[in-house]
Amino acid sequence: MKLSKLRLISGAVLLACASLAHADIRLGDRLPVAPEVTVGKLPNGLTYYIKKNARPAQKVELRLVVKAGSILEDDDQQGLAHFTEHMAFNGSTHFKRNELISYLQSIGVKFGADLNAYTSFDETVYVLPIPTNKKGNLEKGFLVLEDWAHGLKFNPADIDSERGIVLEEARLGKGASDRMNKVLYPKLLNGSRYAERMPIGKEEVLKTFKPDAIKRFYKDWYRPDLMAVMVVGDVEPKQAEKLILQHFGKLKNPARPRARVYAEVPQRAQTEALVITDKEAADDTVFIRYPIRPAQEPVTIADYRRQMIENLYGQMLSARMQELTQQANPPFIQGGSSMGKLVRGYESFSAYALLGKGGVQPAVDALVREDERARRFGFSQDELDRARKNMLRNYERAYNERDKSDSAGFVAEYSRNFLEQEAIPGITNELMYARELLPQVSLQEINETVAKVIPERQKKLVVFMGAEAKAEGAANVPTQQQLLDAVASAEQQTVEPRAEKVVAGSLMDGPPGGGSIVSETLNSAIGVTELKLSNGVRVLLKPTDFKNDQVLMGATRFGGQSLFGDADIYNARYASAIVGSMGLKDMAPLDLQKIVAGKTVNVGASLGELSEGFGGSSSSADIESMLQLVYLYMHDVRKDADLFRSYIGKQQDLAKNSMAQPEAVFYDAIQHTMFGDNPRVDGVPRPDDFSKVSLDRSLDIFRQRFSSARDMTFIFTGSFELDKIKPLIAGYLGALPVAEVPHAYRDVGMRPVRGVVKKDVYMGSEPKSTISITFTGDAAYSDEQKLTLQALGEVLNLKVIEVLREKMSMIYGGGFETAMGQHPYGHYSVALNLPTGPENVDKVIAAAFAEIGKMKTQGPTAADLEKVKLNWITRQQKAMRENNYWMSQLMGSVTQGRDPTQILRFAQRVRAITPQAVKQAAQRYLNTDNYVQVVLYPEQKKVAANSSQ
What we know:
single chain
């Protein structure tokens, strides 16, 4: 029910809802539970939620939600709430260690991508999507949930084996953010217990705890009165209810249950400042945290109305903050103020800024000034009207998609209801409330609310977080007193009412005219209509009923950055982003946002390495606006020197500390080891890169490629009617200019290095390493070879989990990624990425190459390959009902010259892959005489090596 998370969909209110505006709404009434969800409670206190939902078909989303997280850990259990979650996959009443993962993989459920879990301060949530295409799958899924709830074994040997995996997960989280947060959280949470109970826990506990400690946590807190089971998907509610009773009715609560209490967050006693620096910090930030207060989830319709008002003024305040970033010398790169959740049951008003070269003072001045301006003078009627239009449109689109929404979204909402008491009245009721209540919210009421909510010189925590060593031209690190002085100074500013800029009422007056459709053909096998327009532009139309209010647009043509020389690479690389930052015609980006308020439409142009084109989306009612934006991109892009300087300055500020991060240095080293010093290597951006960008030249490059639609193919998928969209396409796309332009890419000759090349990178203070091994080479491209190569990567990933993670306990995550392409030449890559400890690098590399060797000599087992195939087929069945998937497949048919009906033969093509074909792919593509190996080590490793020498 969170308004900020309502899906952005479009369209006018359906006629079926017309009567809702006249409903008798009494503000004092309690918010109901949506009638389409069954919420019940077993005699033992276990809560359950059931909803029949058809999307995706033949699939049920199961959840076990436990109100037990790290906040409940005793001192000797720090980290064991999370460790318990890990043990759920390591032996239970009905599944031995690793049996569960293997079984679920055998029915098409992928570990990590599908099967997963998470632990937070106050909860642990287990995620289990179950395909229902085979009898018995759902019953087995409930057996898994039951075992998680009360059947974990905690075998001492399995605990010891899992320690290494959990410690590797903890290792992944180490770095600048972790170090700075350990200083921040005690102050941010005012000394609350939350700061002492981070979910990952303490390493000394994870290494040494006795099995009795984790068994005690499980016994104390995994009990039915703290649990909820959620069943949403392609299942009959009566059947689901029967299975819940059968599997969970027998659970019992302890005779003497420990009280489940929630940690309190004390009020701040005084204004404080905190300066936290780290040499590996990527960004400089400042934020001001005002007094914390109890958060109140809506209970009555009046509460819901209050939350709508909070969202309205939050949207308006965000728009004002965004406007500040459009100046030639903005006060910050990004900033905002809002009322937001801190931890369960608490919220506070805060202001935040990502700092630019001006540093703290201009950012704090701007944040405090805009908050005070809103508090003292409020907002304008135009601002409220736009915010109201946007909010109502969000409700309307969510309502329109009520029967086309995925089950995973519903279980997330029901989880919040169980954990945080978020109301779940259902979108039908929510639209009714919006239509009735939004028009009643007056500007006076908004401004009176804002005057009370935005703090005025109250006790606060002012925090600077950033890099220790300042890049040339950057602001210095402030002291605590300078932070306090900056806020005090900002609070003394003179604030004037804001002047509202008048903008146009529409993007264009109407279609330019002159275009027509000269031919039309139907590919009946896939339901795609191809149009040829009078200017030669080609259009592919795939109307669908996958969503009720979503239209996607894509366009492509070969060319791109490849057509420009090395000296122009930065101008070409950033040309489309620069144009996007300046706006269209006489409308700046923020003007465009105001003009399309109440609409759902988005269009962007992109100039890639080998091609250029457009990407966009809209609601069904806003297709014309989307086409108008395309037309303006090709006719009238805007030149604005101030916005250009703003864009360049912000990019330089963002890049200034990028090479302080070990991960960035590592990525940069991989790219340059692979491709040498080729100027076209897309490594980590440096501030100096942007000093090489010229406004006039980048604009000229953009216009060269986007002043003509010649040889461009446009693709539309989604909820549109052919008879209605065709006149719009003829009127706008048919009127695009089509002057002669190059429409083929240029092979610039960039190739990866040959032979075995190894490089060690020393960066970072934490004991962390990452291994990157990349096999590359030429390949005669075919769709079948690409699919077989992908299968090779997936079966190897099963071995990564089975051997490197579960058997050796030396990694938490990582794996193989494969790619094959035919442009600008036939090529492939197989990249392996494995984070681990520095002490384990050699062992992990040896184990990885051992698995590669086995794959080349023995091939995959039929069972492993079948797991991969089944997961692919299951996922594609769902994807066939998604507009994004059809867009990507049709785009691929254009760029690869592929038969678009191939999409219908996916399962057949997958089933045709044999273990022998995968073995041959391993022999062909995993050439151990030709790969690049780059390993990241901490700096201390180099110091130790030099000392030993």
